[in-house]
Amino acid sequence: MNFASDNVSPLCPEILSALEHEAYGNAPAYGADETSRQLDAAFSELFDREVAVVPVATGTAANCISLSALVSPFGGIVCHHEAHINEDESTGVAFFTGGAKLMPVDGPAAKLEADNLDAFLASRVDRGVHSVAPECVAITQATELGTVYTADEVAAIGAICKKRDLRLFMDGARFANAVAHLGCHPADITWKAGVDAISFGATKNGAQAVDAIVLFDTSLRGRVEQARKRSGHLYSKHRYLASQLLAYVKDDLWLRNARHANGAARTLCDMLVSHGATLAHAVEGNELFVRLAPELAQRMRDAGALFHPWPSLGADIYRFVTAWNTDIAQISELNDRITRN
Amino acid sequence: MNFASDNVSPLCPEILSALEHEAYGNAPAYGADETSRQLDAAFSELFDREVAVVPVATGTAANCISLSALVSPFGGIVCHHEAHINEDESTGVAFFTGGAKLMPVDGPAAKLEADNLDAFLASRVDRGVHSVAPECVAITQATELGTVYTADEVAAIGAICKKRDLRLFMDGARFANAVAHLGCHPADITWKAGVDAISFGATKNGAQAVDAIVLFDTSLRGRVEQARKRSGHLYSKHRYLASQLLAYVKDDLWLRNARHANGAARTLCDMLVSHGATLAHAVEGNELFVRLAPELAQRMRDAGALFHPWPSLGADIYRFVTAWNTDIAQISELNDRITRN
Amino acid sequence: MNFASDNVSPLCPEILSALEHEAYGNAPAYGADETSRQLDAAFSELFDREVAVVPVATGTAANCISLSALVSPFGGIVCHHEAHINEDESTGVAFFTGGAKLMPVDGPAAKLEADNLDAFLASRVDRGVHSVAPECVAITQATELGTVYTADEVAAIGAICKKRDLRLFMDGARFANAVAHLGCHPADITWKAGVDAISFGATKNGAQAVDAIVLFDTSLRGRVEQARKRSGHLYSKHRYLASQLLAYVKDDLWLRNARHANGAARTLCDMLVSHGATLAHAVEGNELFVRLAPELAQRMRDAGALFHPWPSLGADIYRFVTAWNTDIAQISELNDRITRN
Amino acid sequence: MNFASDNVSPLCPEILSALEHEAYGNAPAYGADETSRQLDAAFSELFDREVAVVPVATGTAANCISLSALVSPFGGIVCHHEAHINEDESTGVAFFTGGAKLMPVDGPAAKLEADNLDAFLASRVDRGVHSVAPECVAITQATELGTVYTADEVAAIGAICKKRDLRLFMDGARFANAVAHLGCHPADITWKAGVDAISFGATKNGAQAVDAIVLFDTSLRGRVEQARKRSGHLYSKHRYLASQLLAYVKDDLWLRNARHANGAARTLCDMLVSHGATLAHAVEGNELFVRLAPELAQRMRDAGALFHPWPSLGADIYRFVTAWNTDIAQISELNDRITRN
């Protein structure tokens, strides 16, 4: 009953099969193999337009490498205070971009709001070379607090970026959970809404270790590939990244896994609420942030549940994360145990 | 019959089993799992002293992160002109170290010679803050040209480093091939010879994607782990790196794989020599650099062999690389084909 | 009647004389000359303890080079939102430090408050390599809004830094104005209060172009000198920096200039208040931030005064800056003109 | 009798006058003043085409900032082994460019030869993202060994750069000495020969501290100005850089100073040769590299001459540098003294 993170889950059977399939014969290195060469087509089909795909093994790499191609070393990246790039990636953004500055802003439930974003940008005084000019906006979908931008919300942000000549990047570590929640086409919340590049996460949702940098502006590919190589993120046995990704998008595995995780989150949510928990934020993906009375929190722990306090949201707020492999029966069992106690 | 690189080989069965073994239950992320926590002990036993192990997925990451902990942004890294860090890792060293400079020197068969190294270091004029002072020496074992430093040769370099207060780093992308060739204990060519840190390669020798940064100076661990995180090389599902490494060193798998590859290289070498090829360098690991008459090179290609020209060594020099999975029977078959032609 | 900035003032006669004095004979380059070699002693006397002095030509260089010696590339620098390093130095801090992150906090009148600082630091959740740990606090004396920390206020911040093992840096671009205001000994608000290093500004207060990095922790000298050289801030004709600094601290020139500027600011303040202006912040140094009715602002402009609106403080807030050469008679003249209008 | 460097000379009277002229009234900061605004026109006239001028205080800054606008963080800069950027600027190039790599090549008397350069470039094996691709060639005029490229020699290098789509940069720390030697128009050895940008040195030739980045590709101005600011090289009292430069190019001061220095070098050369010294390189600017018998070297020192050994050229090689203020009578006096001894 480990709800500490979706990172605690193992790879899923389909991904394992894909790796096993690449366990025999030789193949060219560094992405020249047949498996790797299918990536662009597979993702172009998925997104319904031509894209360039550059896979890496971690979300931090996907985010930071993408951003290094979107901003100059003198520029600013507007993001939410809660953004992973702001809170969880050490000084990675400055490292990869050569100095670009994060410009955190607030917004409810870890989401940027278009109007507030516009007001923030309008309020920046341009003092030429002295000040840092925003060059990019970065949003997370689903957010770090388990909420999801609607297609309209992304498009509103995209319109502001276009108006102000800014790039728009999406951290999609939990992109699948967002699409599963919205029931939309992936295009609706990405390039059709003005997104230039996305880190398309798979690791948290059933892969072993792969996130795809998906470039809707394909002219960025060369720069991204240079940055990937020199930061040590180009796999020699590249097919082991590619095969995970192909399996991940085949037959909607990514969405099936995400739907399961989202559903488990709702089930867990309902159960917790029935015991008196209250929601800190809407549950739209696979993360719950709930207020638990100390006594309930203790009963949960005694029943064997693993989960983290989330002090930045308040002293009695806890995070629960579900995953592709969360066992619904275990939630029932957990309910039984804390009811009995 | 792919001799283009050892990177073309797949992962080996034992590594696949290790991954499969981690395909079920949940486990803590970022290295707190039981598998990952066995690493230090396993490698401390392997090297017969306390070490700190920080696994990453690629050799470039292992090399550059290690060096970032060994030199300042103002320092120099003395290496051979042929070194992978100098020739094959883009501007990665400067990126990770914040500006440190590679100082390439020559030497036969891609090896630094202690006397020449000492003379080079002695000849540097120290002009204080204006000039770049060497802070580290980096050697590759086995070298990029398939040769191997003896324990005495490493120790001689180590003694110079100690005398001049320099760090000594070893790029061990093919460390297993070197140990298999020398028949020595791993300690003999590392910490006992003055090496501070090594990138202990597994990817080329049967793993899917993992190289271990092994720190003999364990005080470097904190800095290395910070550099790993911010460069995006900390795996969330860390156990998939750790499990590969544990399988790799268990029951001497790393040496068995390397011995096979080395043996295949010798077999291939003998076969090629019997057809008139001449060696550009001694064959001590799993790489051959041979001079082929154009007609023989063509016959090889016609017979289905894949291999690369190596123009930096001469117009008619070719590289052949064997691996853990090289089929000795195929070398016989290749011999038959080119003999028949 | 140029109140746009203290940077609009020329060098003062004593500084010019010092340069003229170095206009003849030859002298060793790069700081080995007799003039430069007097710096450490002069500043050690000024601060009443042994210090190391490393002069550079600009405040941005002094700040960023100092910080690069105080924090790691993975660390955070806590400063006020209004800090020059946060608002006016482009992405300089990240550039010089190799990625360190500014952590801006609020406080009245551009000052950090010890209690709030401690609360901010206490609230940071340490998530190991994922999060950025504060390593340094940077304060500005006098602040960007013309206010001044008392010795007790600096000491309270210094005590927090000591308790939490953080470095304390002071941006002293207008240090002279602060000391002139407080009437204290320079030591009282620097090393005795826990400051590790200061950029001791001279440019705004009568010099041509020189700010001194003054290190109370003299062990930082080597690192600072390396950073100075590779960033192009080591003057070959170093005596032209040194001679400015020696003249600047001789016979209290720095304090005399600052006292004049501070006095002019108070005179200007009184005059403006008599016309209905209200203060946005206390006038403690040589900067005024005042609220002017649109009609008064226009009359000032019509009378020939140059000054900037300061929109970040409010729509009708304006900044006036006085300098060592502000003509008190001109303030009277200005008063006459706007009175007549 | 200080021949240690041209950096030991003071500023010249005309430069001092220019500074004195800016010693009174106020003026806008950061380059908006009238003096600074004359720079582009003055240098456009000097070079007989539209240029953009960005002044900084040191040659290292001028070189490194220029290069940061000419190459990517992944690129290579081909230069001579003896180049100042390779030997005397610490790790400045990597710092400013974000990692670009110096690719030193050999050539007689510190000069790149077009044919060898072309052969070097042709021999580079392009291995895509793995290898570093040259993006720029940097030459020094006059060179670090006191020799001068003819206009044809620069043009031949420029043609190769054009053919191979590389940028061409010129380190002109002693550009005046080169032009004075050649008797050519400044355009002949710069933009007409394919140079994209030059650091136009003044410091060594009579200025206090200023080198001008002159951009023949004026589209680079924005990037250069951003890099200047964030590296702390934008003067607040910018007029003190501008006034030096305007005085320097007015009435051919720069050439008059350089002609004097070059003439003094020839006089000193003749004198030394008459005592048995032999030249290590042709004397074309204001630097001499001569072989002195130990006994002669000692007599020189006993006579009061200051000069440096130059061990990289040989054990008995010494460097003498003359400057705008070298006293010809002192060379006679020196001759008398060593003749008498």
UniProtKB/TrEMBL annotation, chains A, B, C, D:
Keywords: Lyase, Pyridoxal phosphate
InterPro entries the record matches: ArAA_b-elim_lyase/Thr_aldolase, Low_specificity_L-TA_bact, PyrdxlP-dep_Trfase, PyrdxlP-dep_Trfase_major, PyrdxlP-dep_Trfase_small
GO terms (BP aspect): L-threonine catabolic process
Pfam families the record matches: Beta_elim_lyase (PF01212)
Catalyses which reaction(s): L-allo-threonine = acetaldehyde + glycine; L-threonine = acetaldehyde + glycine
EC number(s) reported in the record: 4.1.2.48
Molecular function via GO: L-allo-threonine aldolase activity
Lineage top rank: taxon: Bacteria
Record domain Aromatic amino acid beta-eliminating lyase/threonine aldolase: where: 3-292
Keyword Lyase tagged: yes
Cofactor: pyridoxal 5'-phosphate
UniProt similarity note: Belongs to the threonine aldolase family.
Its job: Catalyzes the cleavage of L-allo-threonine and L-threonine to glycine and acetaldehyde.
Subunit composition and interactions: Homotetramer.
Descriptive protein name: L-threonine aldolase
